[in-house]
């Protein structure tokens, strides 16, 4: 299970990683130190220290065999690190590693709604200072198209007003107008989303900002009801559930990319083809997607989707067979 950023389990893991990184050089500088003295010096309990030492036994360098793992000697209640696996050496970044970190942090700094900007800028300044000329490569980081709209939506949400939006729903291939009570703006998978209470649906909805064709800030304040609970997006916006339609496909080599781009439940091989099952939120969306893939995909279920695709394909072929209208030219 993926931990949400900021969740108690994630925070505990981050705290423990920090302790482990500090523990080896601390013990290296104090060979034979007692566990009681080390625990007091590090500000942890003796049990916590012993648990960390147990974890260190299986930490080390790739290969993870004899001579690769951190090693230590425990003599009663005294501990001595006998092999540090290089963890006591200061981190040295290669030019490529330094540049990759700088670019990633610059992108975060330019992305609306991503954590506290001041913390990102402090980390960026430290890495740029440590990397020196390595971080001075002529690299410009720009947000993808739609960044300005995301900024405008975020500013409107921060003012706390309801919004009237014109929104394109890809699943139904339709554009609707609705009034929403904004809750937050967030980034998921590199895309900006407005999470809001939709008065038309009487439920919480996620709206992709790049599909909001237009919006108007209303005079009335945003007032999501108490039952409007933010969605857990730690594993993505679309969360397949057993009540959604289950689609079964036979996929050729040219269509295998859909198993990486969309959530799928199962993939198995049958000769040169893959048999794929996936949940979809709407059969109309699935129909348009699968027709666009042509001969690379054959739909085997459900029967309703098979019939809809067969009927649409037949209608398209009929258009080619029909003679041109009188006086018309082809």
Automatic annotation (TrEMBL):
Domain WYL: 149-215
Domain WCX: residue ranges: 247-317
UniProt xrefs under PROSITE patterns: WYL
Domain PafC HTH: 15-128
Lineage of the species this protein comes from: Bacteria, Bacillati, Actinomycetota, Actinomycetes, Micromonosporales
Superkingdom classification of source: Bacteria
PANTHER family: PROTEIN PAFC, PTHR34580
Organism: Mangrovihabitans endophyticus
Protein's UniProt name: Protein pafC
């Amino acid at each position: 299970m993926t931990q949400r950023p900021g969740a108690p389990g994630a925070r505990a893991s981050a705290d423990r990683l920090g302790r482990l990184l500090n523990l080896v050089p601390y013990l290296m500088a104090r060979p034979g130190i007692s566990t009681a003295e080390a625990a007091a010096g590090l500000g942890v309990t003796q049990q916590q220290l012993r648990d960390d030492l147990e974890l260190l036994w299986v930490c080390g360098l790739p290969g993870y065999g004899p001579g690769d793992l951190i090693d230590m000697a425990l003599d009663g209640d005294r501990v001595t690190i006998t092999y540090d696996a290089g963890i006591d050496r200061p981190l040295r970044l290669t030019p490529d590693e330094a540049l990759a970190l700088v670019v990633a942090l610059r992108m975060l700094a330019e992305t609306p709604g991503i954590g506290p900007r001041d913390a990102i800028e402090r980390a960026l300044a430290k890495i740029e200072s440590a990397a020196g000329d390595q971080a001075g490569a002529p690299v410009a980081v720009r947000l993808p198209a739609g960044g300005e709209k995301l900024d405008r939506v975020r500013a409107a949400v921060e003012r706390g007003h309801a919004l009237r939006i014109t929104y394109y729903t890809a699943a139904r291939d339709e554009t609707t107008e609705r009034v929403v009570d904004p809750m937050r703006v967030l980034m998921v998978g590199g895309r900006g989303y407005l999470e809001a209470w939709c008065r038309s649906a009487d439920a919480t909805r996620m709206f992709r900002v790049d599909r909001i064709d237009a919006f108007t800030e209303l005079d009335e304040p945003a007032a999501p009801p108490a039952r409007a609970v933010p969605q857990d997006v730690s594993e993505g916006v679309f969360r397949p559930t057993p009540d959604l339609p289950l689609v079964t496909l036979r996929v050729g080599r040219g269509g295998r990319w859909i198993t990486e781009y969309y959530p799928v439940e199962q993939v198995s091989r049958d000769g040169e083809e893959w048999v794929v099952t996936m949940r979809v939120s709407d059969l109309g969306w699935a129909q348009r997607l699968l027709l666009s893939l042509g001969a690379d995909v054959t739909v085997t279920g459900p029967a309703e989707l098979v019939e809809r695709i067969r009927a649409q394909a037949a209608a398209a072929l009929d258009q080619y067979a029909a003679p041109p209208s009188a006086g018309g030219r082809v």
